[in-house]
Design a protein that fits this description.
This protein has 626 residues and is α+β, with helices and mostly antiparallel strands. The chain has 22 helices and 17 strands. Bound molecules: zinc ion. The site of zinc ion has 8 residues, from loops.
């Protein structure tokens, strides 16, 4: 806040003037930094370097050098003088610490605004010094509090502090105080920054609706830097930048203050319950508060099983599990975890029959649910080949959609019609009641007891009807939204490339894992019938994602993939992640290949594995022994 050059020159002048006869300045120790820092951290800054050339004051070091010199056997000075005692440290504790360290070296500390007693520091000097130190610290703390309160009011009024978050641009308006405005000062509000605001909306959708982890979202963003421009130039997205966006409450349109606080010079995160939200939205919202809350809650669900495709960086991790976070147990719906006791990988349900809480939650759970991975691999590959990448896929989907979605849609439409009919009946009933009331007023004495009683009853009935109307309107809105969201877009399937069983069988594990992620593949394993139910969802970004994944396999792709998927890329349609056009095999296909191939549960090699081309087996099947 002050000009360090002028300030330092004044301090040297004052010290020089105060020296008793015969004394001289043997060495100069100075720093350009805050006095509120810890004494051990002080004197190491490099801010002084920019002043060295012009300031014209010699420098023998900073505070650390002063203390080192004082503690040495033959210090170059017998006493230390500073301009003002509060300059020795704005925080009383550090000022006392400095004084103590100097006094241990038997070096007195003087100040230009105190009488200099050559015999040492006397009682009155100490009292003055302590009072001054107390006042200085009080002043500093009070200023800090006032600044904090000012910044809080500033935020609650909707003004932004610092760089606008990704997705927003700074909308500078003249300062509301006329004097400050005349000096050209401005305040900043947040304004949407298309197309980045849409990227933010998508990210929240991926996190909440598609339940993707941070690493998966980062990978998806990095797959298409043109569509998802990264926050900083072309450096790409990082997990940290994705995390910062998903945790930023300002996207709800509210200004939020006090998410971080400085305590003892260290920046601390403040628990969300203590954040200060502006009561009203103060800038355009990109997402709803509900979506933001849901995104914050996602962290816990994800904790147990990683969905990143990058191998864990822990040195003990040797393999990437292709099905990580994709398999759930049908009995308890929990994610199954990979275990590799020997050569084979098993997917195991975390259910523990000896844990009373587990037993209580799922009384009918089998004691142990597990499936060997090499029994799953060929089945999943066959599912992908048949339903997603094979020549007959459109026919399979056409067969599936009428069977499943159509019946659900018919049920929904029937319900919608019934509700609309009921609404019309309510209209008629209300009209009748209204004319009844009118007649009553015309034909009878409006003050009579009978009329009052009847009117009361009619009103009560009217209220009931209105309540029913509200409920029905809400139900209708839900159903219409459901119809919009679950509408299938079978055309998306055409945008996927054609792959053969060979392509899939020879694909390295990592690529398969990426493919499964792009397809949002979910497996549900039931021990009872030894069946796995496989579900895949295509959204309008899936074809591009898959093309990008395959491009890493074949630099010159032999597979054909139409450039534009049929679904629209209209940002308005995709801003709400739940409205993303998609095609899903839902309810899922129950793939009974495990049974059909006659595999004994948990044993024997899968016959499907023998259909894989020779030489490709080890990639997909069980790893070679040892
Ligand atoms: Zn289970």
């Amino acid at each position: 806040l002050q000009d360090p050059v002028a300030s330092l020159r004044r301090q040297v002048r004052e010290c020089q003037a105060k020296l008793p006869p015969g004394w001289f300045l043997a060495a100069y120790y100075w720093d350009v930094e805050t006095g509120g820092m810890d004494i051990d951290q002080r004197g190491h800054g490099l801010a002084h370097e920019q002043f060295m050339a012009t300031i014209g004051i010699p420098r023998d070091g900073g505070l650390a050098d002063l203390l080192a010199e004082a503690a040495s056997d033959e210090p170059r000075f017998a006493a230390v003088i500073c301009e003002d005692i509060e300059r020795s440290g704005r925080d009383t504790f550090y000022a006392l610490k400095l004084e103590k360290e100097l006094s241990l070296a038997e070096i007195p500390l003087y100040a230009t605004d105190e009488p200099i007693d050559l015999n040492g520091v006397n009682a009155t000097t100490v009292l003055t010094r302590r009072v001054k130190q107390g006042v200085a610290e009080w002043f500093r703390l009070q200023l800090k509090e006032k600044t904090w309160r000012g910044l809080r009011e500033h935020s609650l009024d909707g003004w932004n502090i610092g760089t606008p978050a990704y997705g927003y641009a700074a909308d500078r308006v003249p300062h509301p105080v006329p004097l400050k405005a005349s000096q050209g000062r401005t305040k900043t509000r947040l304004a949407l920054d298309p197309p980045r605001d849409q990227v933010v909306a998508r990210m929240f959708g991926w996190r909440v609706t598609d339940r993707l982890g941070l690493a998966a979202i980062t990978a998806r963003l990095n797959n298409n830097l043109v569509r998802y421009p990264p926050p900083t130039g072309d450096a790409g997205w990082t997990i940290a930048s994705v995390h910062a966006i998903l945790a930023n409450p300002k996207y709800t349109g509210h200004m939020v203050f006090g998410r971080r606080r400085k305590v003892n010079g260290k920046t601390r995160r403040v628990p969300p319950a203590e954040w200060i939200w502006s009561p009203e939205p103060v800038h355009p919202a990109i997402i709803t508060r509900e979506l933001w809350d849901a995104a914050q809650a996602m962290g816990g669900e994800h904790a147990s099983s990683r969905d990143s495709l990058e191998p864990n960086t822990h040195p003990a991790t040797k393999r990437t599990y292709t099905f990580r976070s994709r398999i759930r147990c049908r009995h308890c719906r929990r994610r199954m975890c990979a275990q590799t006791p020997h050569a084979d990988t098993y997917w195991v349900c975390p259910h523990n029959p000896r844990d009373p809480r587990h037993a209580l939650r799922n009384p009918d759970h089998p004691p142990r649910v597990s499936i060997r991975e090499d029994r799953l691999v060929p089945v999943v590959a066959e599912f992908c080949q048949t339903y997603l990448f094979g020549p007959g896929r459109a026919a399979y989907l056409a067969k599936l959609i009428p069977a499943t979605a159509a019946s659900a849609a018919a049920r929904r439409d029937k319900k919608i019609t019934a509700l609309r009919t009921r609404l019309r009946q309510i209209d008629t009933a209300e009209d009748a009641k209204a004319s009844e009331l009118q007649q009553l007023g015309l034909q009878h004495d409006p003050g009579s007891r009978a009329v009052t009683a009847l009117r009361k009853r009619v009103l009560a009935r009217f209220t009931d009807l209105e309540t029913e109307r509200d409920t029905i309107t809400e139900q209708l809105a839900d159903l219409t939204r459901e119809r919009r969201e679950t509408t299938q877009h079978p055309g998306l399937l055409d945008a996927l490339p054609h792959l053969t069983t060979d392509d899939l069988a020879c694909a390295p594990q990592r690529l398969l894992a990426q493919l499964y992620q792009a397809l949002d593949l979910q497996l549900l394993y039931s021990k009872d019938d030894d069946q796995v139910t496989i579900r895949a969802v295509l959204t309008d970004t899936t074809p591009d994602d898959i093309a990008a994944i395959l491009a890493t396999l074949h630099p010159s792709p032999q597979t054909s993939h139409p450039a534009t998927p049929q679904a629209s890329h209209n940002p308005a349609a995709t801003s709400q992640a739940t409205a993303t056009p998609k095609v899903s095999f839902d309810p899922p296909i129950t793939w009974s290949a495990l049974h059909d191939h006659g595999v004994p549960p948990n044993g024997g090699s899968h016959p499907a594995a023998t259909r894989l081309p020779p030489g490709c087996g080890p990639e997909l099947g069980r790893p070679p022994p040892g």
